[in-house]
Structures are given as C-alpha cells and as structure tokens.
Fold this sequence. Notes:
The chain is mostly helical. It has helices spanning 8-53, 58-77, 87-105, 119-125, 130-152, 156-160, 162-186, 199-224, 231-248, 274-282, 286-302, 312-315, 337-354, 423-426, 434-449, 458-465, 472-486, 493-502, 506-537, 543-546, 549-567, 576-581, 585-597, 604-619, 629-636, 641-647, 657-663, 682-686, 720-723, and strands at residues 267-268, 271-272, 379-380, 383-384.
Amino acid sequence: MDGADAPQPARSGSGVTACSTSTAQGRMNGGANASNNAAAAMEERFADVCKRKLVLDESTTRQAMQLFKETKIILLSSMSSLGSGSPEEIERSWCACVLYCVSKLGNAGKAKEDRGITLRQILRAFDLKIVDFFKEMPQFCIKVGFILTGLYGSDWEKRLELQELQANLVHLCSLGRHYRRAYQELFLLNDGKPANNSSELNVQQASEYYDFGWLLFLVLRNQASSAVKNLLTSTTELVSVLAVLIIHIPVRLRNFSIEDSSCFAKKSDKGVNLIASLCERYLTSEDELSKALQKTNILIKDILKKKPCSDVSECQQGSLSFIDPEGLTFFKNFLEEDSLKSSLQVLEKEYVNGLDTKGELDARMFANEEDSLLGSGSLSGGALKLPGTKRKYDDVMASPTKSTASRAPMSPPRFCPSPNGNSFCNSKMAPFTPVSTAMTTAKWLRSAISPLPSKPSGELLRFFSACDKDVTDDITCRAAIILGAIFTGSSFGERMCTSLRNTSGMDAIWTEQRKMEALKLYYRVLESMCRAESQILSGSNLTSLLSNERFHRCMIACSAELVLATHKTVTMMFPAVLEKTGITAFDLSKVIESFVRHEDSLPRELKRHLNSLEERLLESMAWEKGSSMYNSLIVARPTLSAEINRLGLLAEPMPSLDAIAVHHDISLGGLPPLPFHKQPDKDEVRSPKRACTERRNVLVDNSFRSPVKDVIKSKFLPPLQSAFARFDISS
Length: 731
C-alpha cells in the first residue's frame, strides 16, 4: 500500500474546508465593505446637504456631522424597522431628525440671529412633509436617546420641545381651517364686476384680501399673543382680523347683507353692534375681542403706517353703513388696490423677519388648502393623526423668502353658494370643529366659573371650621402655593420667562387670570364634595377628608388641568401638573371620577378630556416606577413588600409645601404662615423632586381615604406578576 495515497482524502477534505472558510470570510469582508461603503456614501450625501443646500456655519456643520457619524450605524441596522418608505426616504428622514436635534440642542447660548437653521429649511432641504417628520422623529429619539444624552445632557428631551412643536402644528391646522371657513362665509372669492380687468385679475385681487387677512393674523399672533401660546387667544385675535376685514373690504365682495338680522343679531339705534355680533357668532368674549381689536389697530398704525379716519360720518357712507362705529377704527383707503399690494409686502416682510429662528414653522402655508395639512390631531405612537377629508402633503413647505408678487396666492376653498345665496346668514350655528369646541368650553369657564369669588364661600368655611381643628388657613395657603407653582413663568418654559421680563406684563396678567379660574373651580367642586359627604355622614365634621394633603393637591391639580385644557396651551400640557404639585399619576386617578360627579355643569369636552386622562393614567402611567400605587399595593399585600422594595418601585414622598414655595419663589403675601410643615432642608429647597434613597415606612403618605369608603379596593394574588393582572378602582 502506498503510504502517500492514504491521507489523500483528508488533504482533499481539508482543502475544501479551507476553501469554504476562505469564501465565507470573503463574503463577510465583502458585506462589511458594502456596509462601510453605504455608510460613507450616506455621510457624503449628508455633508453635501449641510454645505451646499443649507450653507451651515462651521460650528453647526461640525455638530451635525458628529451626531450623524455616531448614529449612522443605528440607521443602517434599523432600515427595516424605520418607516414604510424606501431606503432613500428613510435616510432623508433620519438626516432631517439629526439636523433638527442639532438646531434645538446644539445652539444654546447663541444669539437668536445666530441660531442657525429652522425646521422649515430642514424639511425643504430633504424634501420632506411635516407629517412624515412627525412620524419618524419619535422613533429616532427612542433609538438614539442615549447618544443625545451623552452629547447634550439628560434634559435633551425637554429642550427639544417636540411636543410643543406638535401642539403648535395642531393649533395652526385648526386655525387655518377656521379662517378658511369664516372667510368663505363672509366674502366672495370673485370680484363679480366685469370692468376692464379680466376675471382672472378679479379673482387674484379677491384672493389677495384672503392672503392679507391671514398674514395680518400671523403678525398679530407673533407680536401680540402671549408667550403662552394657546388656541383661545389665537382664535380671538383671528376674529378681530375678521372684524377689520368686514369694515374695510369693498362691499361688493361681501357674501352677506349687514342689515340682515339673522347675520348680525346684535343691534342698537346706531346700527349693528359688530363686536357683539361676532362674539355671538364665534363664541368669544366681548371684552377679550375688544382688547384684541385694539392690538390689531395698533399693528395697522405702527407697521402698515395707516392713519385712522378722523371723520367717522364720512366713512359711514361706505363699508361702515348700518354699522355702529363705537369701538371700531376705520382706516380710509386702507384696502384699496394699490394700498392692498403694498400692505401685503410689508406684512410678508414683517412676518418673515419675526419668525422664530429656533425652529418655528412657516404658518403661511396653513391657510392654503392646496398646500397645508388640513385638520388637527395628536401624536399617537409617534404618528400624527389628521382627521381631515382631504390630505394633500405635496409642496407643503412654502419659501419664506419669496415676495407676494412672485409667490402663488393662498387658495381658499371654492365657494359653493347656498340656495339663498348667503352661507353666513343661513348657517345658524358654527360647525363642530376643534376651534368651535374650544370656544364653547371657554364660554362655560367664562360664564360659570369666572364670576365666582376667589375665596371659600360661607358654607365651605363652615365645613373648614367644623373639623377637629380649623383647616381654613391650611387650605388657603396650600392652594396659593400649589397654584403658584403651576401658573408661573418657569412652568411655561424659557419663552414665557423671557416674556415676563421683557413685556409690559400681558403674559403675567394671562397667567394670573388662569390661576384664579383654577382656584375658583377648586373651591366650587370642593364645596360640592363636602356637601355630599356631610349628607352621607349626617354631620359636618369632615376632618379625615379636609386634612388630607394628597387629596387637596389632587383636587387642585385636576382644576388646573381643566383650565389649561380649556385654553389649549402649547407648552403647559399634561402631565406637567403632576410634577408641579408633587403627586403621582395614580394619586390623580383617584379623584377624577368624583370630580366629574360633583361638577354637574362640566362641558362634555372636558369630561372626555378627564376620561382620556384616567385611561392613560390607569393603563400606563400608574404602573411606572415611582408610582404611589406600589405604596398602596405593599399595604394591601405585605408579602409583596420585599420584591417591590428590591425593584425600587416605591414612590418618593411628596415634596413639602415649604420646598415647593422656595423652589418656585412663591410669595404668600398677606396669607398666614404655613403651620404644618418643617423648614425645608437644602436638598428639598433645591428640587421638590429630590432623590430619596433611604428606606421609608410605606404607611407614611399612603392614606387617601374618604370618610365613608376606601378610595381604592384591590384584589391581588400572591405573585407580583399576578398582582398586576387585575386592578379595580371604585369610589
């Protein structure tokens, strides 16, 4: 036997194995090279957009490239799970998210004019629609959150202001639709006279009036609106613009008759009371509308340099015929053809110059039916829901630098006349829209709550004094501190604080008014609860209820949340009230049902709001780490104590009122000193949400019980997992 022949198969097999290993290694290297090439190509494309399209400064470019390089691996590995578009679309969305983060987080401390790019520029550079951006941005933040924390600190999410931006978007969508509908009802979109001009020119001029009204509103919103942006104030400003248009747009373009009582029901012997009639139509406050109209007139005088007509009788022969001029300001030849064009150019320039360079949207597009996102909605799971019948997202970003002459006019919806030719007069009630719903809710707050006294009623004081110890001072001091913490400049972010320092105090007045509304609502519902409890107990001593700190904070938080929800603020949104009051989501969930039951006049919209909050609280927030539910659970099932403590699930103690007062620099004025809390230590003063590392008695701060029933009844099985399987709350 030839010795050389025996090992041949082994050598052959070894050669095949080596060849296979080499091939696999080659494939791996090839895949890695392909991946590296793809990453390099992406990086090159991103750099090209930064330098060529956006022309970023060196500092912003450096930060953008750093963030992109650190996140591109996540992008490559997550292509299949990011969005439903093509790889190219996903890449563009990712790049837009990177630049938005840099624009918001990487420019702190810079002057406003040096803060770089805006969101509208980013979206235009990457050919993205707003709705796509809002779909992808939450997923981006989830995936790269740890990188953002390392680069920009743990507070990056708050500074990103994504929730505020989305709320502002929703408001602008609603306001744009509201304006289109109102303009369509009030005015024709075609001049209607053959004259020497073509019909196309007549249509264009009529559209310019439409453009003018929206631009006037936007400039007014940017200049006169409080830093605490809210839907109610913006709607009132929009109605003030409609009043200006009614008395200045040529009569031939009106879609109504001023003498028709069904159109303008509020009249006097001097003629139609325009302000009162518009308030009735659009559910605004006469006082607030008059103030908004004054601001609008000041803007016209200061920015457009128009002079009011001194002789009112001379003006009443034209567009002011049959209108009571009291409270109105008429500008002669204000919206004549030549004046209209120049006014449009001035407003356009004023608006572009006033755009917030920290990422504000270009709101001109929201009045354009063909280009804007119609409807309103909220982010749910990272997606923006816009319940409109028409959703056109193409060409959504209008150029902020184009002049009125070169830019296509905003296109309001085609007007379809009613059988009687008068849509405004035939429509007896405003259509059900987000704006009309908000105004209806505000009317309740204005008529049912605002007239109430800001102090406890005589009956409520009797309940306070009937306790084992008179709790009047405790309750009034607590309300002042907690509401002071909620309604302060710091509660509404950096813009509010700056505004409070730099304006004439209008934002401070707005904040104080909202605080008073919440206080009055709190006392009203508390009195109703006390009355009901005393009937059940056949007595007036409600010590166990009225001396419960957590109960009162929950009631105040609920009242404040309803006021904020009514005004639909952009910045102070739920769950902000929880942090300000020092309670948890589980705490608040225990008073919502009782709050609704004891306020019969609560509008349906606010009941729905509380119901949605309750679902959110019980389905998710109450189960988070640090929830007071675990403090209740450990009492109901002591056998779970070890595991709950091991997992660190227990809630921190509520911050003392002293700590909250010091933290928010709240002055109690003439109120008595706090009799029920020790002087806060340094850690407590620094933050009312201070860390609590020591083991604590879970019975402390756990009781929250009605004099008659336990607020919470729970049935739990021994294992911790089974304990979460059933959760029942009853009153």
